[in-house]
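Hello forum,

I keep getting stuck at the same step: I have a sequence, I want structure tokens, and every attempt I make locally crashes halfway through. Rather than fight my setup again tonight, could one of you with a working pipeline run this one for me? It's a single chain of 198 residues.
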Amino acid sequence: MQKLPLNIALWYDEAFSQHEFFDQAKGRSGSSWIVKTGEAQVDLWNTLLPGMFQQVRLLTEAPQKGSTIAGVDAILVPHIEELQYAIPAHTQIKVYEIWLRYRFELLSPSGAPLAEWSMTAYGKTPTAFLQSDEEAVNLAAVVALRDAGANFASQFRRVAPLQSWLANHLQQGTGPQQLSSQNIHSETALQTQRGVAQ
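Reply #2:
Ran it on my machine without issues. Output:
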């Protein structure tokens, strides 16, 4: 994949970076479990985005309108809008499934909205050889995250709300080279994607 000549700042809010979902036991024979996806979400996007853009910087504070971050073309803010899951106890089908719906915000360096769009991802795993619902849902979540990464990478250039902004910036060539150190971490490019945290 050829990198886009853009410098992107990236912000994860707490709801995203600490994301988790919980299933309450139904009846005495069931068991409750929790799956924490936040760390794996952060790892996924920290790995994917540096492969798509010229530079990716992590913000340490939320972007604020009127406070400009120098040296970047835009700020990307991902959100998990919805997560649904199905397990055999619910569906009587021996498959564990997860559906994710993301919402992405693209902001100007000064925090003004540039574009907003949604994206879905899906993961499933059969019950064979898995010891618990939690383990199976964990694996389905990993598959859903891989699907999310593939969808984002393949669809980004075709997202309708981004078309005019992308065309304008790509015509200008490479993005700004002088990067402000204020509220920014050094570039993150993880080499491997971790599994979903237990």
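The beta strands are 4-10, 20-23, 33-36, 53-58, 74-86, 95-107, 113-126. If your local run keeps crashing, start a new thread with the error log.
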